[in-house]
Design goal:
Layout lengths: L1 H24 L2 H6 L1 H10 L1 H9 L5 H35 L1
Length: 95
Amino acid sequence: MKYRIAMWASAGLLVVCGWQFYIHAIAPAQIAADPTAWALALLSCPIIALGFYLGFGVQIGWVLVANAFTYALIGLLVETIGRRIRHVLQFTAAH
């Protein structure tokens, strides 16, 4: 399960890197003008939403750490719930 959590954290890092490449490819002000891209950025990087709504900027290093941590927590929840569901399904199929 450790490796799956690490994969979730890596996915969080890749999401931030993807957004960084996208933002550097376009002008940074243009992402806020596109409601679809802005909504996806806020949804996929919760620390950006927190910084935006509380009115402070977040350095990219902290965004990487916070997003990896957030995705690792989400992965921990998903993997734990998935194990419970698989256990219940195996138990009900056996009886």
